[in-house]
């Protein structure tokens, strides 16, 4: 396979999806985008307690 012109974009669970999408759009893929998922990340990271307290105050 000729992979010239191929770019891989990786992102972890803490990367906002809109930022990842913006990176992909800025690359302007002329041959489309292939999404490959090696793991399904569904981890939730709650804000620190002091921020949660402020939100509920």
Number of helices, where a helix is a run of at least 4 consecutive DSSP H or I residues: 2
Order of helices and strands: HH
Structural class per helix/strand content? Answer: mainly alpha
The number of E-state strands comes to: 0
Task: State the share of residues found in helices, binned by percent.
Answer: 25-40%
Largest sheet: none
What proportion of the residues form beta strands (DSSP E)? under 5%
Written account of the structure:
With 57 residues, this protein is mainly alpha-helical. It has a domain at 1-37. It contains two helices and no strands. It has helices at 17-27, 49-55.
Short structural summary:
With 57 residues, this protein is mainly α. Helix content is 32%, strand content 0%.
Topology diagram in text:
Blueprint: H1 17-27, H2 49-55
Annotation keywords:
57 residues; mainly alpha; 2 helices; elongated
